[in-house]
């Protein structure tokens, strides 16, 4: 059985909810990633922010990324997957919630991230097409 841990990018990094969006953007640049999980004061997942979130919901709205925080954008119920979950469970979670990146948690700690590219590399072609249709549907 292929698990979430088998296909994830290991070593994902949190950003505290209190951190500015400017710092979040700098971290994304330095790590060459497009998303960061957001943690609360207890280092528990409380959201995820993307580079697009920063541009659309902060900069384009005329807000200052040096004063807005990750908590300002980390809204809704954060989705995640257990490291031992089967890859088909990963596909269901990402597809049913139309998400492109999924934090992987093991023993209540962030251990990695799964992107749609990770899923595509690890599924047969016909399943990749079905997965993409679910993630990108309205």
UniProtKB/TrEMBL annotation:
Cross-referenced InterPro entries: CBS_dom (IPR000644), CBS_dom_sf (IPR046342), Diverse_CBS-Domain (IPR051257)
Gene3D superfamilies named among the record's database cross-references: CBS-domain
Domain CBS: residue ranges: 8-66, 73-130
Record's keyword annotation contains Nucleus: no
Key words, A-Z: CBS domain
A Pfam short name: CBS
Keyword Plastid: no
PANTHER family hit by this protein: CBS DOMAIN-CONTAINING PROTEIN (PTHR43080:SF2), CBS DOMAIN-CONTAINING PROTEIN CBSX3, MITOCHONDRIAL (PTHR43080)
Record-given protein name: CBS domain-containing protein
């Amino acid at each position: 059985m292929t698990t979430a841990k088998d296909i994830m990018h290991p070593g994902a990094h949190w950003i505290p909810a209190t951190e500015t969006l400017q710092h979040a953007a700098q971290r994304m640049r330095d790590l060459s990633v497009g998303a960061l999980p957001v943690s609360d004061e207890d280092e528990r997942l409380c959201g995820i922010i993307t580079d697009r979130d920063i541009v659309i919901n902060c900069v384009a709205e005329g807000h200052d990324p040096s004063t807005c925080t990750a908590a300002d954008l980390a809204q809704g119920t954060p989705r995640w997957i257990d490291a031992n979950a089967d890859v088909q469970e990963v596909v269901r979670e990402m597809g049913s919630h139309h998400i492109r990146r999924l934090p992987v948690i093991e023993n209540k700690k962030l251990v990695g991230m799964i992107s749609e590219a990770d899923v595509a590399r690890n599924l047969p072609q016909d399943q990749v097409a079905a997965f993409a249709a679910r993630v990108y549907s309205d």
